[in-house]
Design brief:
The protein contains 14 helices and 2 strands; from the N terminus they run βαααααααβααααααα. By secondary structure, the chain is mostly helical.
Length: 410
Amino acid sequence: MAIYVPLAEARTLPLWRRPVSLLFLMAFAMPVAFYTWFALLNNFVEEVAGFDGADIGLLHTIREIPGFLAVGVIAVIIFVREQVLGLASLVLLGLATAVTAQFPQLTGILMLTFISSVGFHYFETVNQSLQLQWLPKDRAPQILGWLLATGSAATFIVYFIIMILWEPLGLTYNIVFMAGGGVTAAIAVFAMVAYPQFEAPHPQIKRMILRRRYWLYYALQFMSGARRQIFMVFAGFMMVEKFGFQVHEVAGLYLINLVINMAVAPFLGKIVARFGERNALVFEYAGLVCVFLAYGGVYFFDWGFQVAAALYVIDHMFFGLALALKTYFQKIGDPGDIAPTAAVAFTINHIAAVFLPVLLGLLWLVSPGAVFFLAAGMAAVSLTLATLIPRHPQKGNETVFARLAPAPAE
């Protein structure tokens, strides 16, 4: 029988059973399955299924459809508590990842990708909502930074095991997929049993809402989703296709990313808290413009794999500052809007993700460098939008234009 604990009373529980501890446990569990799949994906589909750029674009389009449909979370939470839905989604992600190698054909890979993606995107939607409901505003940036570091630590373990043990133990795709997916599913089942149901003080609106005053947040989410596809789909594929990276070499590159992220992520929250969301996002997007232009240079000037690998690491570091987008909404949003807006934002974030991978996959066949130049343009649009965030965002001061609005009559 479920035990319900109001958030205000959760501090009386043992430390490991408190809401923040559950957030850390979930932050650790999700990357184990997802990044096991991600680390093996490019080599698996090329070696086993013979994918080319168009196929990989199609796969990622399929993977992003559940993200586009994340608004369906609003309907689900009418009947299922967010905490339960989040953990159930983790189980689905883990199980689908575990059996990936059992279906090495195009159709099977696409079907399992879709199923695991439902788990991933529904978990991420609910997880973002729970973070903003459960974390106090004054400490949210710092704790989000530590949650990011926790996810990086989990991913580090995955990549380290793959890199160190792949060749010595003769690991297979099936063994690693089964292990990664199984660990995530097991942790989620444990969390279902071990933790009470936490009740936030502000009931969430259980219908879709679109508020005019959130327009800048929506626009930034849209551009973030479009830009992210270039990194997720093509940056890693470049390392395999152009430079011939093997599984353990790709894992090694990811490992470098994770070591740096574990060291840097806790400070990212402090940076956001100290300098504000606007400055953090402006810095991120300006850096990404430079990185994507340099990616294009890898093809147009035939730079070596060392340059591409360095850019990949820098690229990954900049994305950590995206936590500023979460805290921006936490400051401007109504408390009851968090769950429905998280779902709507995920759908907006994935609008471009549904069609961009397959279209850019076709462009990739003609000019891979052009794909990255297009990404630089997207980052430039995000940079422009970020300058519209006020220094101290809050309800009624969502954008720099708010101060130009006429004051209400007294």
